[in-house]
Amino acid sequence: MSKAKDRKNALDSLFGGGGMADMVAAGSAQRPRLASGAIGAAEINLIRDERDRLKEEVSDLSGRLSSAVAVVELDPEKVHPSFVPDRMVVEHDPAFDALKESIEQTGQQVPILVRPHPTEENQYQIAFGHRRWRACRDLGIKVRGVVRALSDEELLIAQGQENHERKDLSFIETCLFVLRLSADYPQSVICKAINKDKSLVSKYRKLASTMPESFLMTIGPAPKIGRPRWEEMAGYFSEDGKMDPVHQKAVDWLFASEAFLDLDSDERFLAVLEALQEAESGVHTEALEQTEAPKTIKPAASANKGWFGDRRVAFKQTAKATSFTVDHTANPELADYLMQHIDELVRQFEEEHKEPEQ
């Protein structure tokens, strides 16, 4: 959908009903034609009626426009989160810290959207803008917002669409939002909320339901981790949301570490995945029986990748291993050459690193 069409739809939603299109059509509709010659009493009354109707239209339009875009300052203590959470709050969130610093220095540039709270008088409930509200609350300042009357469904759709357009939610936060909505709302509402088709909505819900919410909340939003890595993580869980004892022990051991809480959520994800992989290979199985949770955790480093020569040999280096890849189709002679000389290189290395005789 184009930005121009998005703006049109947004304006239509502000004005209600058919939106601007209906108002333009009404304004351009053919007016009753008057007979030529002297204007009689009936014609004068008709003109007056038309004038009064136009005045009412202008007044109504002005009122709706004013109420739709009016930005007010709200006490953050009287503002409450949406009734369906869509964000994970973690101890270390550099993006939130940057947002709070920006608001402190230059003010809140984008207002939040709230509705009058459905059950509490003189209170408000957020449709979107939770991070801006939290930042203003932490800073002890008023939060700028637009107040609109919204039904539960309208609030959820506004909440989901805003986060989707701004790409504010991480992949796993979107999956959890879908799972929570699915408990009370039909798939059609969820599709509108996240602007995805039914097949993707089903996949998001299934992925989030595979892993316990407490497990996901401990890791956090992991904004740099996408669908493939989360699917790999979900592969360690059975259909009932449980792990086998060996993998569960590895996770419990890691979660018990104070050092784990010092990692940001992306680092937590990588640390958990690495622990699961090592438990699978048996690296930690015996050690976990007698070892306390680590006091420090080295964040998993991303792989170092590159090429040798004119993109002839690819390499990938991680903390655990280094691999080399030669495309046999493109470089058959080079592959044979390296195979012939690898032994010589290994012997040369061993000679250079040989322990001196005593």
Structure description:
- By secondary structure, the protein is α/β, with parallel strands linked by helices.
- The protein has four domains: 67-167, Alpha-Beta Complex (Conserved hypothetical protein from pyrococcus furiosus pfu- 392566-001, ParB domain), CATH 3.90.1530; 169-236; 243-300; 304-342, no CATH class.
- The protein is built from 16 helices and eight strands.
- Strands 1-5-3-4-2 form a five-stranded mixed sheet. Strands 6-7-8 form a three-stranded antiparallel sheet.
- β7 and β8 (322-326) form a beta hairpin.
- α6 (152-166) packs parallel to α8, α7 crosses α9 (198-210) and α12 (245-255) packs antiparallel against α14.
- It is elongated.
- The chain starts with a helix and ends in a 6-residue tail after the last helix.
Fold blueprint:
Elements: H1 3-15, H2 20-28, H3 41-69, E1 71-74, E2 79-80, H4 94-106, E3 112-116, E4 124-128, H5 130-139, E5 143-147, H6 152-166, H7 171-182, H8 187-194, H9 198-210, H10 213-219, H11 227-234, H12 245-255, H13 258-261, H14 265-281, H15 287-290, E6 304-308, E7 313-317, E8 322-326, H16 332-352
CATH class of the largest domain: Alpha Beta
Number of strands: 8
Summed up, the helix count is 16
What integer value in Å does the Rg equal?
A: 31 Å
Widest β-sheet, arrangement of strands: 1-5-3-4-2
Under CATH, the homologous superfamily of the largest domain reads Conserved hypothetical protein from pyrococcus furiosus pfu- 392566-001, ParB domain
Q: What number of domains?
A: 4
Tell me the fraction of residues in β-strands, as a range.
5-15%
**Overall pLDDT score:** 75
Report low-confidence residues grouped into runs of 5 or more.
14-38, 61-67, 284-291, 299-303
Overall helicity: 40-55%
Distance between the termini: 76 Å
Judged by helices, strands and strand pairing, the structural class is: alpha/beta
CATH arch. level architecture of the largest domain: Alpha-Beta Complex
- Per the CATH scheme, the topology name of the largest domain is Conserved hypothetical protein from pyrococcus furiosus pfu- 392566-001, ParB domain
Q: Can you tell me the overall shape?
A: elongated
Order of helices and strands: HHHEEHEEHEHHHHHHHHHHEEEH
Sheet with the most strands, sense and barrel status? 5 strands, mixed
InterPro entries: Chromosome_partition/occlusion, ParB/RepB/Spo0J, ParB/Sulfiredoxin_sf, ParB_N, Plasmid_partition_RepB, Plasmid_RepB, RepB_N
GO molecular function: DNA binding
Family: Belongs to the ParB family.
Protein name: Plasmid partitioning protein RepB
